Structures are given as structure tokens and as C-alpha cells.
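quick one before i forget lol
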Amino acid sequence: MLTSMRRAVLFLVLVLAVLLPGTAVAGTFPETIRLPDGFRPEGIASGRGTSLFVGSIPTGAVWAGDARTGQGDIRVPAHAGRSAIGIKVDRRNRIFVAGGQTGQAYVYDAKTGADLASYQLVAGGPTTFVNDVVVTRRAAYLTDSLKQQLYVVPLGRHGRLPAQGAVRTLPLTGDLVYIAGFNVNGIAAAKGGRVLIVVQSNTGKLFTVNPRTGVSREIDLGGATVTNGDGLLLRGRTLYVVRNQLNLIAVVKLNGSLTRGRVVAELTDPDFDVPTTITFTAGSLYAVNARFGTPQPDTARYDVVRVG
């Protein structure tokens, strides 16, 4: 029979395993993974096995590495005129990339880095910012932080990529209202892709979005906010919200209907330096440091941080 002290220790381990998913592998994977100097990352995604992918804002390049070894190299080379903001890897091992002010989206082969498709979602320029992407069985959905709409790249049978003409714009209606500044940022899919979740960075509010109609409903956080909300990661009913400039990850427990949520924890790490997005692999959360505001970004050091 367990002693009271052993029971207490076991309880603490279980709590940490819930809030800090990396506890189970602590000490076996590197705490930080160094990216190329001057890379200027923003998006991170996990792929098959323990693979990680990170995009470069100014060049559109994608770095690929292994969370177990910390080693990696450039998988997708830099493309003139392209940018990489949010990225996701789908079940068919393709990298979907949001293109920021280019107004574009790109799809690459995660194994070879080959260019599979590119889409012009909206006219590029200073009044648009295609920020993040989530991929479901039916489509890829991309946010725009400056325009109150999503972009939909529908997927055909067996995930077939569409022609440019199939891409559509989905206006956002309902509770979500854009105001001056940076609005919708991160996006996640729930209930098998039947519901989307987005964060409005400047208000700190979370919303569900119907992916067919664009109608949004605010998630009641009981008065709490997640301002500076950036990347989202949903695991079960636990939503992780990166709060970039605050060097925090908010842990939000959602109810079954996704109408309410409760901030139950805030994760931080001494290695954080303006983390923007997160992913999950091999039992741990991984956040990428964008280091916005660093004096010499083109020569600065950048890292991926294992959280926990």
C-alpha cells in the first residue's frame, strides 16, 4: 500500500503531466533547439515521428528538425517574394503556410521540400496579413489579422489540392467584431473540423466559428482575457494560447459545447523570448521564439523551446 507521502508525490506528478505535457520525457530531449542565426521564425508545426518544422518570416524558407536530437536543416529553400507566418503539417505530410502581407498561401512536401501549390487568397499589401492556418479533412482555413474574414482552400477526394478558382473567402459575422490593430491571429479546429476556434489578439477574446457560415460566438472566459494571443493548440478540451509579448502560454479548459472556458494555468519558461506559436510532439509542447523587437534580427540567435 502506498504511504501518504508516496501518494502525494504521485498526485503531483499526475498534475504536472496534465499542465506540463513534457514532464514524462524531461531530460531525454534537448531543452532548446537552435535555428539558423537570422532565421526570424514565427510558425512551428510537428510532423511524423518527432519531426518539427519552423517557417522564416522574411524568406519563406522552412527549417525541418528532430525534437529528439535537436538537429535539422533547411527543408524548403527561401523563395523570392514569399513569407512564412503560421504553418501546419497535415496527415498527408504536406506543409501548409500562411504568407502574411503577400496575401498568399503555399503548400510544400514535408519530406522533400518540393513546391506543391501556391494560392493568391487576397491582394497583398499593408492592409492584409494572412497569419495562421489549420487543416481539416475538408479544407485549410487561414486567418487574416487585418480583414474580418477567413480564407478557405477546399480539399478534394483523398486530400487533393484544388485549383486557384476553388479558393474562397469566408466573411466572419456574429459576435466577433474587428477593431483597430491586430485582430484574429491563431486558429484551431475542434469536433473533427466541424468547429473552428480563433483568438482576437487585441481584445484577448476567444471565439468559435462555424466553418460553413462564418458565424462566430464568443467563448465566455468568466471575465479573463488572453491579450497578445498568438498561436493556438487544442488537445482534447484543453486549449493552449501563446501570449507572445508576455512570454506566457495560457492553459484554457473548455466545456463540452465550447461555449465557456476557464484559464487554469499560465506556463512560462526562462528561455522564452517572445514565443509566437506552439506544437506538440513526443509528450511535450514546443514553442518558437520570434524575438520581435530584437535590435539586429538578421543576425540574432533563434531557438525552439521545449516547455516543461
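fyi Residues 61 and 286 are 19 Å apart (CA to CA).
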